[in-house]
Design brief:
The protein has helices spanning 2-25, 43-54, 68-82, 84-89, 152-171, 196-205, 264-276, 286-296, 301-308, 310-322, 325-331, 367-378, 402-415, 431-434, 451-454, 466-482; strands at 91-95, 99-104, 114-119, 142-143, 146-148, 180-185, 210-215, 220-221, 232-239, 241-250, 254-255, 334-341, 348-349, 352-361, 382-391, 419-425, 438-443, 448-449, 463-465. By secondary structure, it is of the alpha/beta class. The relative contact order is 0.19.
């Protein structure tokens, strides 16, 4: 018995030693020290330009309203008047009459160009919330160091930062080493079906294949990721796919005074519960594992220990992340029931009851595999109908390619000691189109945001700090300067 106990103790000591050694080795790579770079853009000009841009009600609606078109045409006219230096130096093409495509020819036209893209359309203000805004959402008010308005973060701030960076460099006589395209979409908020998709058609017709592109998608996250005090420049390398399914339960209708044991509604309710209890399997492999593996190296000891020893703590980590909405979205294809419909009258039993469920597909899954998963989960009594919109997740861009290195290097140049991590865009961007003409498509906005900023996107009191506009302009200026042709 004593030998057995000694053996157990020896095994435990060995286990603890292995865990500790792996933890102490699980550290971030050493980085060279850099002085923060600034290109000194004019703060007042940046604020005024964005203020003007926000005053155009370039609202994308699923059902356009009379007069919507005029706001887009007015924005394009303002854009040309506001950036004469860029228009003189670059070729401009209007795609679908309203998406602005600019081509800045580089010194070496033999190498693949790159694309910087943003969109200038915005979502409507949520009806009934107008009085909750501290400032008129379309007045472009500048106050307390912020520019207020719908589209400030999503995504007119990006448009302004890119064009101010290009203008600053042009005024200094700069020409990029390789050709740079800028695309400013007019319909991203409704899928980019004519804007970004039209740009792709145009580039394909011109025989253009991009080395890489960068679009919106993530930010410099400040205090958002639990356990991290440092800012995180999360450069997203893919975006989730999208599919919506209708779950249809069918039963005999009739009068509600004599309900059967099972009705279409109860069958549907049971199916929704079954689906909730059978989430699409997730995991820490692939992009999810790479993202969390990068972040965890900067976390406190306990978290580092868990991630460094996933062979021992992997299940615990996944359970913890699954309990967090953002963590769960990174791990798996998410399941979100969003709409219900049944009887047309309160005392009538419906023949059909329908639940609409939206799924955001992780790159490991496909539309077909999700449909099969749902059919198995809800059982044979429920019909599963796919709605036409959507598709699979985008290809995953490389974290070892020149595009990621350029974006990461510019981040460190303007932000200093910032964590660089790959990520996954859980919503949709125009990059779902640009991946067709880009070797690698990335998604990153160089603005520092906290939790209080994130909730304003598509919500109430959207705003961006003037400091962020300066930072974004510095970032894109540095990116344009340091983006070289391969081999340089």
């Amino acid at each position: 018995m004593k030998r057995v106990l000694l053996g157990v103790v020896a095994v435990l000591i060995l286990l603890v030693a292995v865990v500790l050694i792996r933890t102490f080795m699980y550290t971030p790579p050493a980085l060279e020290q850099r002085e923060i770079v600034t290109h000194s853009p004019d703060r007042d000009v940046l604020a005024q330009r964005l203020s003007q841009a926000l005053q155009f009600k370039t609202i994308s609606r699923q059902e356009p309203q009379p007069g919507d078109r005029q706001a887009f045409d007015a924005f394009i006219a303002w854009f040309e008047q506001t950036y004469p230096v860029a228009h003189a130096a670059m070729d401009r093409t209007l795609i679908a009459e309203q998406t602005i495509l600019m081509k800045w020819e580089g010194k070496d036209t033999s190498v693949k160009p790159v694309l910087l893209t943003a969109h200038y359309d915005v979502v409507p203000v949520i009806p009934g919330t107008e009085d909750l805004w501290k400032q008129d959402p379309f007045a472009g008010v500048i106050e307390d160091g912020y520019v207020w308005g719908r589209g400030a973060l999503d995504n007119k701030g990006g448009v302004i930062a890119m064009m101010e960076a290009a203008t600053l460099l042009l005024e200094r006589g700069f020409q990029p080493e390789r050709t740079v395209y800028f695309s400013f979409g007019h319909d991203e908020e409704i899928g980019g079906g004519t804007g970004a998709a039209g740009v792709v058609d145009y580039l394909q017709a011109e025989g253009v294949q991009l080395a890489w592109s960068v679009d919106e998608g993530s930010f410099v996250l400040d205090g958002i990721i639990p356990g991290l005090d440092q800012k995180v420049a999360m450069i997203n390398v893919a975006e989730k796919g999208y599919v919506t399914l209708d779950l249809v339960a069918t039963a005999q209708g009739g009068h509600s005074s004599m309900p059967p044991q099972e009705s279409a509604v109860t069958l549907l309710a049971d199916a929704i519960v079954k689906l909730k209890n059978a989430p699409v399997p997730g995991g820490l492999e692939g992009i999810s594992g790479e993202a969390y593996g990068t972040l965890a190296r900067h976390m406190p000891f306990a978290q580092r220990m868990a991630f460094a020893n996933q062979w021992l703590f992997g299940g615990m980590i996944e359970d913890m992340l699954t309990g967090l909405p953002a963590g769960n979205a990174m791990l798996r294809t998410t399941t979100a029931p969003t709409m219900l419909s049944a009887s047309i009258k309160e005392n009538v039993l419906p023949i059909n009851a329908i639940a609409t469920v939206n799924f955001r597909l992780h790159p490991r899954d496909t539309v077909e595999s999700v449909v099969a998963h749902v059919e198995q989960a809800v059982g044979p009594d429920i019909e599963v109908r796919r709605r036409p919109r959507g598709g699979n997740a985008s290809p995953v861009a490389s974290t070892s390619a020149e595009g990621f290195a350029s974006l990461a290097s510019a981040s460190r140049d303007v932000l200093g000691d910032v964590i660089i991590a790959p990520g996954l865009t859980v919503a949709g961007t125009d990059s779902k189109h640009y991946v067709k003409v880009a070797d690698d498509a990335y998604r990153f906005n160089p603005f520092i945001v906290g939790s209080e900023d994130i909730v304003t996107i598509h919500g109430t009191n959207e705003r961006i700090s003037i400091d962020n506009l300066v930072l974004g302009t510095d970032y894109f200026t540095q990116l344009l300067i340091t983006t070289k042709a391969p081999g340089e």
